[in-house]
Design brief:
Blueprint: E1 12-17, H1 20-28, E2 37-40, E3 48-51, H2 53-56, H3 66-72, E4 77-79, H4 83-100, E5 104-108, E6 111-115, H5 126-141, E7 145-150, H6 153-163, E8 168-170, H7 176-180, H8 193-201, H9 207-211, H10 215-232
Helix pairs in contact: 4-5
């Protein structure tokens, strides 16, 4: 009777294209590089779809009224959205991910999870694979992608946000809880402003402080959100990457 091989450590990556709409517009028009750019429509009802990092320095952000953004950064260049171009670049990005691993779950036009478990000779080749993917996206599409490799979806998503712009974070095997511990609890994907405020009133401001609580108390105080928080704060997140899912 054959014996099963060793269980490989789970390695989940989250890839996120940096300032995606702006990045595509800069490929189309290189004169926009290095300048504050707002993608969206002018007018009283116009809203910022994406702000370049140069514009964010002045307080501009996505979902902000365009009038307010231009008040904060009057020198910003406003570019109308080109959704056909964004969809084309998104398809190419996801196609490159599909060449890396068949287990890819799209999170939208500009982001996706990928299961890199078992990649490489020792099963720990995720970083090299992710770096190669980032290089291909930059070379073939002309845009930057930030990424994080961790043992769970939660840590990977939080890490890719922290890797911006154009960075890569690798959380050591078994290190998800330690990586998340010092971070504000608000950075967890499922913790919204109201939940974060309720946690703060209970003296919980960091993920580590949440991990230190009795899971039964968290469940009693915060219901289903508390149950999820108890697990995620301890690095427990068994949710798989759903191939082709979203």
């Amino acid at each position: 009777m054959s014996q099963a091989g060793p269980v490989l450590p789970r390695r989940i990556a989250h890839f996120d294209l940096d300032s995606f709409f702006v990045a595509v517009e800069r490929v189309k028009d290189p004169s926009l590089v290095g300048k504050p750019v707002l993608v969206g429509h002018r007018g009283r009802r116009g809203v910022v779809a994406t702000a370049s990092y140069e514009a964010r320095v002045f307080g501009c952000r996505s979902a902000q009224p365009m009038v307010q953004a231009l008040r904060l950064c009057p020198q910003a260049l406003v570019v109308s959205p080109d959704f056909e171009a964004y969809l084309d670049f998104s398809r190419k990005f996801h196609a490159l991910l599909g060449e890396l691993t068949p287990i890819v779950e799209s999170g939208g036009l500009d982001e996706a999870f990928a299961d890199l478990t078992g990649i490489g000779r020792d099963g720990l080749g995720g970083r090299a694979a992710a770096e190669a993917l980032r290089a291909r996206v930059h070379t073939e599409l002309g845009i930057a992608v930030s990424a994080c490799i961790a043992g769970s979806r939660t840590a990977a998503k939080v890490g890719s946000d922290r890797a911006k712009p154009d960075g890569l974070i690798e959380v050591p095997v078994g290190g998800d809880a330690a990586f998340l511990a010092p971070l504000p609890v608000r950075e967890l994907p499922f913790v919204g402003p109201k939940f974060a405020q309720a946690l703060a009133l209970a003296g919980i401001r960091t993920v580590g402080e949440a991990a230190a609580q009795d899971p039964r108390w968290l469940a009693a105080q915060f219901g289903a959100g508390g149950v999820m928080l108890a697990d995620r704060a301890r690095g427990i997140d068994p949710a798989p990457v759903q191939a082709g899912g979203r």
